[in-house]
Amino acid sequence: GEARVAKLQAEYARAEVDRARALIERLSKARALAERRAPAARIRPLLDSALRLSERSRPALMEAAGIFRAAELRKDAEALLGEVAERFPPAYDALFQLHELQSRAAGGDPGVFVETEAFLELVRRAGARGDTNEFTLFCQAAAMVRLGRDEEALQTLAAIEDHSRRFAPGLILRGVLKV
User: Fold this and answer.
1) 28 and 47 in contact (C-beta within 8 Å)?
2) 37 falls in which pLDDT band (50, 70, 90)?
3) CB-hemisphere CA count at 13 Å for 107?
4) Mean pLDDT confidence for 86-102
5) Which of 76, 77, 95, 172 is exposed most, by the fewest CB atoms within 10 A?
């Protein structure tokens, strides 16, 4: 009866806590290895295991992508960010990080805008949904810069602060435009 149900619930709760601890442990170990520039062969198995434990949850996918970025494993990071963008729309943060990786791969400098597939998808999704946030505003400002409308771009970049005071790409682009 009730005692059996309570026991099963307690066992399930303990198993979930153990799973969460194992997930955090694997992500922490992978991050430490990435920071020490360990070989990918040591990082990937930890992240694969963490993603299995998390059932490929959005937070775990984003954390693993960040670890791959820190380890300079661009293709692995791109794959996970692409998965987030596909499975958890609108995923503006994942698309923007994917844009940054694609931009760098194309030889882009943080102060020079490169239009990427991820950028175009972010713009498409935001337009379809009518969303406004730091990512969409940055995309609008970048498009204005490409058209030579720097003053309008600066105004749009200033509006980012309503959504995020520390959005580094916006701060960088504002600095470039003010020079």
Assistant:
1) no
2) very high
3) 0
4) 95
5) 172
Contact 103, 95 (CB under 8 A): no
Instruction: Kindly report the pTM of this predicted structure.
Output: 0.83
Is there a cis peptide before residue 90, judged by omega within 30 degrees of 0?
Answer: yes
Structure tokens at 17: 């806590």
The Cα–Cα gap between 59 and 134 comes to 20
Q: For residue 95, what are its two tokens?
A: 């698309």
Nearest residue to 44 (alpha-carbon basis) of 36, 59, 34: 34
> What is the arithmetic mean of pLDDT over 3-27?
92
CA separation, residue 120 to residues 10, 82, 117, 139 (Å): 48, 14, 5, 9
Q: Residue 171 and residue 158: Cα distance in Å, rounded?
A: 9
